[in-house]
UniProtKB/TrEMBL annotation:
<keyword id="KW-1015">Disulfide bond</keyword>
<comment type="similarity">
    <text>Belongs to the peptidase C1 family.</text>
</comment>
<dbReference type="Pfam" id="PF08246">
    <property type="entry name" value="Inhibitor_I29"/>
</dbReference>
<dbReference type="GO" id="GO:0005764">
    <property type="term" value="C:lysosome"/>
</dbReference>
<keyword id="KW-1003">Cell membrane</keyword>
<dbReference type="GO" id="GO:0051603">
    <property type="term" value="P:proteolysis involved in protein catabolic process"/>
</dbReference>
<dbReference type="Pfam" id="PF00112">
    <property type="entry name" value="Peptidase_C1"/>
</dbReference>
<dbReference type="InterPro" id="IPR038765">
    <property type="entry name" value="Papain-like_cys_pep_sf"/>
</dbReference>
<feature type="signal peptide">
    <location>
        <begin position="1"/>
        <end position="27"/>
    </location>
</feature>
<feature type="domain" description="Cathepsin propeptide inhibitor">
    <location>
        <begin position="52"/>
        <end position="108"/>
    </location>
</feature>
<dbReference type="GO" id="GO:0005615">
    <property type="term" value="C:extracellular space"/>
</dbReference>
<dbReference type="InterPro" id="IPR000169">
    <property type="entry name" value="Pept_cys_AS"/>
</dbReference>
<keyword id="KW-0378">Hydrolase</keyword>
<dbReference type="InterPro" id="IPR013128">
    <property type="entry name" value="Peptidase_C1A"/>
</dbReference>
<keyword id="KW-0926">Vacuole</keyword>
<protein>
    <submittedName>
        <fullName>Os01g0971400 protein</fullName>
    </submittedName>
</protein>
<keyword id="KW-0325">Glycoprotein</keyword>
Length: 365
């Protein structure tokens, strides 16, 4: 395969691939444009290869063979072409190169999502919504829980379908900070390892099930005491080690959870004005994969496949209303790990289905 691919490439390009970074002056991230490339980079194979080497250096990419590197370069070129073509058409947001640029779209979808839908999501909490009586007119014009000290830094789920755990944990970290005044980083790994009643570790899960687990099992441990592995492990909750080092008692507890009324943007904003909210969206679109900044308005469908956390809302300078969403793909994706998603679209289920399946943890003072 390598020989056939080599035959399609200029000799100079193959030499660049062989010698790697030694032949290319690798730029620091600050030297790259806001979208990660310039028009000049698209002018020749040699410039594209230089850009690929910069990409590899920035994201510490390494490939097992020249054949694999050639294949990834072809994928990179295809993704870059999509990014450039889309940036010529869209106006409210822009796409850019990120660490997913050497993955095919199918590879990306298989590795970085992880929401599992089941018919039994809703339970006896279905009718409970504590913010029902809040007057819409009384809601603040904008809310940003990051500025209120209720959001930890962006985390990275890696190639593990554990988005549901990150969405859950961010919402629990938020309500705990609001009620107690203490912002504590909590353990996604504990949910991946221990919450097996309906959830499936790196193979997907659901935030409501995770909230139920936390409430029923006395809370959640800190990330420091139960760190993230980016893979499934053995449940260490209640182990002898925990008893010995005083970590048997969970760091943060919740009372339960409630669902936001389905397909009701006003209800979502009411909840969001009071605390961060776990939401589900369709994030498998190619534009979502390479989102870099601005107010995202699609394209996307409403087949929910990714759990994230809404941490605020506001209005952009161009008048576009948005919801601030914390993702779990690291701080190099989007706006330092966040995305602003258009609201007020006129569709009941919201952009990418964001209004379809929202919920939040409850915590008594």
């Amino acid at each position: 395969m390598a020989a056939s691919m080599n035959s399609k490439l200029p000799l100079a390009l193959v030499l660049l691939l062989l010698c790697g970074g030694a032949c290319v002056a690798v730029a620091m991230p600050s030297e790259l444009s806001i979208v990660g490339y310039s028009e000049e980079d698209l002018a020749s194979h040699e410039r594209l290869m230089e850009l690929f080497e910069k990409f590899m250096a920035k994201y510490r990419k390494a490939y097992s063979s020249l054949e694999e590197k050639l294949r990834r370069f072809e994928v990179f070129k295809d993704n870059l072409n999509h990014i450039d073509e889309e940036n010529k058409k869209i106006t409210g947001y822009w796409l850019g190169l990120n660490e997913f640029a050497d993955l095919t779209h199918d590879e990306f979808k298989a590795a970085y999502l992880g929401l599992t839908l089941t018919p039994a999501r809703r339970n006896s909490n279905d009718q409970l919504f504590r913010y029902e009586e809040v007057e819409a007119a009384s809601l603040p014009k904008e809310v940003d829980w990051r500025k209120k000290g209720a959001v930890t830094e962006v985390k990275n789920q890696g190639q593990c379908g554990s988005c549901w755990a990150f969405s859950t944990v961010a919402a629990v970290e938020g309500i705990n900070a609001i009620v107690t005044g203490n912002l504590t980083r909590l353990s996604e790994q504990e949910l991946i390892d221990c919450d097996t009643d309906g959830n499936n570790g790196c193979s997907g899960g659901l935030m409501d099930y995770a909230f139920s687990y936390i409430a029923a099992n006395g809370g959640l441990h800190t990330e420091e005491s139960y760190p993230y592995l980016m893979e499934e492990g053995t449940c260490r909750r209640g182990s002898t080690e925990g008893d010995d080092d005083g970590e048997a008692a969970a760091a943060v507890t919740i009372s339960g959870y409630e669902d936001v009324p389905r397909n009701n943007e006003q209800a979502l904003l009411k909840a969001l004005a009071h605390q961060p909210v776990s939401v589900a969206i369709e994030a498998s679109g190619r534009n979502f994969q390479f989102y870099s900044g601005g107010v995202f308005d699609g394209p996307c469908g409403t087949r929910l496949d990714h759990g994230v956390t809404a941490v605020g809302y506001g209005t952009a300078s161009k008048g576009h209303d948005y919801i601030i969403v914390k993702n779990s793909w690291g701080s190099h994706w989007g706006e330092k790990g966040y995305i602003r998603m258009r609201r007020g679209t006129g569709k009941h289920d919201g952009l990418c289905g964001i209004n379809k399946m929202a919920s939040y943890p409850t915590k008594n003072a």
